[in-house]
Amino acid sequence: MNFWEYIGNRYAQLLTDTYQHASAVFQCMVVATLIGVLIGVATYRSEWAGNLAITSTATVLTVPSLAMIGLLIPVTGLGVAPTVTALILYGLLPIVRNAIVGLRGVDPTLVDAAKGIGMSRLSRLLRVELPLAWPPILTGIRVSTQMLMGIAAIGAYSSGPGLGNEIFRGISSLGSANALNQVLAGTLGIVILALVFDAVYVLIGRLTISRGIRA
Amino acid sequence: MSRRDRRRPRDERAPGEHEVKGLAFRDEVDVDEPAAGLARPPAPKPPRRLTWQRLTYMPAVLALILLALWLWFRGADLDSIARNSIAGGNVWLRLRQHIYLTVVSTFFVLIIAIPLGILLTRRRLRGAAPFAMAIANIGQATPAIGLLALLVIWMGIGRRAALFGIVIYAVLPVLSNTITGLRAIDPTLVEAARGIGMSAAGVLRRVELPLAVPLILAGVRTALVLNVGTATLAAFGGGGGLGDLITTGITNQRMPILVLGSVLTIVLALLVDWLASLAELLLRPRGLEGSD
User: Fold this and answer.
1) ipTM of this model?
2) Given B38, B50, B126, B181, which residue has the most CB atoms within 10 angstroms?
3) For residue B185, which phi and psi values (nearest 5 degrees)?
């Protein structure tokens, strides 16, 4: 069976896997973005807390994902739980970092001006600081998503959802006629998903980055 | 800026002001923005040096983790399957394999990526750089496990396929770091070096490379950490390494083995990152000290 026949034969299974992969990454990214920006907002004003957040996220980022999933299994059991926990955890890291760096990079005179025209702390944050820090945060989200695509594939080993299952099916049937097709379908599927997500982020950037700071 | 103003004693001149025969003049150029398009100079920082804390903190934490792991593992209840999977010095063997995979792959990553990055920033080949970057971007979207599986199918089970996969996966970040580092160099410095009669090779060796060292070193650190992580996946293709303990733990449902493999991998990753950070500090050219 060649690759195209394989895809034609299994497209239902492949579509389900692709959908689950995309939806797991997407949902985890939404949660990770919310938590990450919150952590960033909570810590960027204090030198100490912000640096602690950046250092600890950098440390967690050095932990290999298979080891992280391995440590989560005794806590959460097999299945979707360890994958989702690991995805959210890794997704957080670039976002927290970029949110803090972005928020700290906002020109203090602009915040001063906003204060001067009578804006409250909250509206300064929502209408001045976050819009100005949004481009680096969005970059963080893009980096996170690319990384999560690969980590989600590894999550399949702990019975997680997604296209990783296709790859591991191929690995466990090495030497059989379909091994290459399975691995290839899983890998290419993830590459395509990652590129599609990236294109969507470029579009989101066009639509949401404030017109005043667009290059 | 406001903070600096407040700290300055009242009687001192503002930056950019000077006195000529009792009359105060102010320079045309605003000192805070030396030239249009140039970023503000970074605030003077104390030179970053090896501090005591930097040397001792991480090893102490890692030693504590290992001690805790050892105490816990000694008390853990191991049945015959679990005992079998660590018998005959298996843990030591897997650790050695893991270190071997990481070191050898990093070596190859460096001798491939750094010369390639230099080539792609030379005038003759500069046109090819965007293509290389585009390929690098697509490569970054490829899941490591898929790449490794494809190589295993193509080259057969074993260490060779794993090494190839790890190298291919880490070449891209180091390559893009090298290219960014060399491109970020102020062109006036290169021109000045050419102006005093240095050859193209001399400029590269004595001006460009030393200035790009921090970014290249950052790339090396990324590659090392990445390789420790990718090397865990070698176990899926029969390449050995600590990933083998993790996968054995998962498939046999023996939690102590799983935790042992995971914690050892994490300790190794943190240790390698710490060593690389020391190297970054020590190898940074003296002239760049204090700048970031």
Assistant:
1) 0.84
2) B181
3) -70, 135
